[in-house]
Amino acid sequence: MDDARYQSLVEDDLNHWVHPLFHSSGHQQPLLIERGEGVYVYGADGTRYIDGLAALWNVAVGHGRAELGEAAAAQMAKLGFNNSYEGYTNEPAIRLAKKVVGLAYPNMQALYFTNSGSEANETNFKAARFYWSRLGRPEKHKIISRVEAYHGNTIAMTTATGMKVFHGNFGPKVPNIINADTPDATPSGGGRIDAGNVLIDNIVATLEREGPDSVAAVIAEPVQGAGGVYPPPPDYFAQLRDVCDRYEVLLIADEVITGFGRTGKWFALEHFDVQPDMMSIAKAITSGYVPMGAAIFSKQVHEVITSDAGGQKFMHAYTNAGHPTAAAVGLRNLQIFEDEGLVENAAARGDQLLSGLQRLSEHPHVGNVRGLGFMCGFDLLEDPETDQPFALEAGMGAKLLKACQSRGLISRVRGDAYLLAPPLVATEAQVDEILNIVEDAVREVTAGV
Questions:
Q1: How far is the C-alpha of 121 from the C-alpha of 440, rounded, in Å?
Q2: CA neighbours within 13 Å on the CB side: how many for 102?
Q3: What is the pLDDT of residues 363-400, one digit of tens each?
Q4: Which of 263, 364, 391, 405 is least enclosed by beta carbons within 10 angstroms?
Q5: Distances from the Cα of 12 to the Cαs of 9, 26, 160, 232, 384, in angstroms?
Q6: Has residue 197 been placed in a domain?
Q7: The sheet that has 366-371: what strands, in order across it?
Q8: Distance between CA atoms of 64 and 18, rounded to whole angstroms?
Q9: Which pTM was predicted?
Q10: Do 295 and 347 fall into the same domain?
Q11: Which residues on neighbouring strands pair with residue 108, listed in sequence order?
């Protein structure tokens, strides 16, 4: 693509498309991606980049998978879409529902299809409230989330999201969705909140302050993703499960990012031998080729919300729920997972990536190396020994992002934290290439500091 064509498209883009997380000053020279193949994407000028975050944590099977396009085309030619409200159904969605539930935790029974992770979480919030109402306890309607959590960007999910950067200028928060108390939390160089996300006491204090008889559910990401890739302490979710059971509160696992192999298991709470009551999934269910998500319910929750007692319907609906074309793509996508052993590959490549980043922590300005499976992060710090961040105006994270991109690696940062979650098809050689680029870029941006 020549420069004149690129500039014309950017002008149209700025005039007619409001992008997610948008400010025009950051979109004057956007990276226009024309095509992708495996772990690579190609810019309009032909430059090849490693996709270091699988687009947005979702392109698990890699780019350019013709099989998924073929599955979509075949289904569209047969039945592109049909109503899936009560009284109507379609085979691909039935098959995908059974398949996903079979891959999920043993206590899971059924799912409700959505279009995104935000909608999956929204569905679980409503289902949790409906569950308690059907049990004669409608006063249990509050939802507790964690500071620095990310659960989406609908108005309710913006409230559940604990990252304050998402809250400005959108008016008051939705009532009865509460971020857990974190009185002793301190920011780190990567922008995380440390103690507040790992102290069960803060969840307990919030439950007791609000009154457990008013709380329907607690929602938590098994690994905080957009918040900076922070795995929990090994015993965190076992403790959280115990707290939820003790206070008669449902546990919702937001596995929108961690689901479908990202952590080296099909779903992340397998690492901790914990089963939630509800799950939210999206992203890698179709590897992002077609929008799709789902809320998954345990046997107990499913039985209550679908019971005929009282004649009350679960009055929750999305036009595209159970979309047959999306379901056909999801089925073919999961077949690729199984045929190519992508969950196992994610575990192996994740170990390789984390080991390489841990070696990088010998650098005097790299700290807080962390990860679970094939999602990792680290912070650029003025002093890793004391967790002292660089001054905000130094813009170290943005500099590292740019330095990596100039060497052929694209990803995202949170403050001065660099995040990595490549497609699950990545090879050993490609992970080595990522590590080499990151090491060179870190040396460049910290030279002379």
A1: 39
A2: 8
A3: 999 999 999 999 999 999 999 988 899 999 999 999 99
A4: 391
A5: 5, 16, 34, 44, 44
A6: yes
A7: 366-371, 376-380, 417-420, 412-414
A8: 26
A9: 0.95
A10: no
A11: 298
